[in-house]
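Retro notes - structure team

What went well: the batch runner handled both jobs without manual restarts.
What didn't: labels got mixed up in the shared folder, which is why I'm recording both outputs here explicitly, each with its sequence directly above its tokens.

Job 1
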Amino acid sequence: MTLEGTGLAGWLAADAGSGVRWPVAPFNGPWCAYIALLALAGIGLHFALRHRSMRFKSRTLAAIAGANVVVYTAYTFQAIGNPDLPQVTLGQNLPFHFCNIMAWALILAPLVRWNWLRALCCFPGTLAGVLALTSPVDVYVDRPLFSLAALGFFSVHSVNAILGTLLATLGLFRPSFREAFKSVGYFGLMALAIFPLNLVMRAWVDAGANYFYQFEPENAQILQFFHDLVPVPFIYTLLLAPIAIGGVSIQAGLYALAGRVMGQPVGMTERV
């Protein structure tokens, strides 16, 4: 399939295929270039905001998160309306996946002093964004670099990770090992709450509903590995616990190391 159409309509319809240049897949050239640009944008945003008032920082992060939700909504509905992707349905793409929840939560997290929400965004939210970038579901693999699907999926998950990190580096949240481990518990409670929702959705709305990927890994490599080990819905996702605990421990360790280097802890240093 080749790209057809011009202008906005052609861009929205852009899809993967043999005639498409620069397909995006984890660790290939376009992927590396795109992730590098987004990472540099995140670093630039930190330095642009670090000396601004807390109110300005909070409102700026919330505004970026709001724009991120718009992008996420656009690429989701583009995929739902794509006749080449009949497996992508509205019932399977309501905002109940963890990364989608985080996209919405990041609008609120900078504005309210809810430590548990900021911990969830800073630790599991950032980790989930990184894992999605390195092990995406197959629907978004090998899409053209400048298609809405690729720009949307990879930018939304990158921005989730960037904003979650900026909550700490800009002083809105003080990361610690205790908060990191508590955040894994918050994620676990969310996963338990989503399971009955999945059951209801699969029984009465869409048999393919698979929020938090509790029933199928959808060819995401990390999830597929554990599903192959224990091919039991929901149970196989419990094997992700060591990755979650290890991942947030690494994050907390990096923040602690950065604090030692700078001579003061990373995180909240003044009132919002």
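Job 2
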Amino acid sequence: MAESGHSIHSNHMEGHDVGQREEHSRTADHGESEAAVVVLMIQEIRRDGGTQGRAALNASVVRQYAALMRDEIPFPPVRVWFDGSSYWLADGFHRVAAASAAGLTQISAQVLHGSLSDAIWDSCTTNSTHGFRRSSADIAAILKRALEHPNACTMSNVELARYLGLPETTVRRWRKRLSSSRGEDSVRVVSRKGTTYALRTRGITEHSESRHGFRPKSKRQLKLELEEVRQVASPKVAEILDMIDLWAFGNGTAKAYINALEEWVTLYLKDARL
């Protein structure tokens, strides 16, 4: 296996069995019923199309994979998209790098037919259910790539979050951040009361404020947003949010809130020094 010219074949997955991966290939919304598995020359596989699922390769993982490949440990096939002239790698950057490091010239690959754009969109889902855990930098890179893709424009936050394997709140926050920084029109798919329609979101807030001035949020809206933030907050931050909730929506006074917050900070600092 360690000799040049050998290929990598697989009968098992990295925490994700073959049946699940084949199902993923069949349901990638690109029109292919199944992905054929073939042996490709590594030099034929394009890795320069912006399809890498992670922010950067992990050199330690590449070394570990390469050592296993030299010992002839089977790995799952990588996944590529063939556009008629190039094979664009969508999933398996660490495996391809490891195969090269191990002196191999060939590798097993699932081949789907489509464009580079299809490969980019497909790459956004890699490592969501297998492989080593995605870092914050990986997630940021994935979200940026996905939200800049045309397919994302026709998906709601919930649909996109489900596709990417990420929390809806994370997708919503990044979508708002990127839309605001680009200052561009944004078309979102909205589903309400059984009806689905496209909504152009740019300037909704600005238009409202320019015509009517600043409009404070309602008590109900603040309560909903506070609960939403509490769901994703760390335990320590959640304790502070609980105090804010009691002060703003309970019977607590401003003085009682400040006293409780001061006591909490004192205890927190004391624990931090231990």
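One thing worth noting from job 2: The radius of gyration is 24 Å.
We'll revisit the folder naming next retro.
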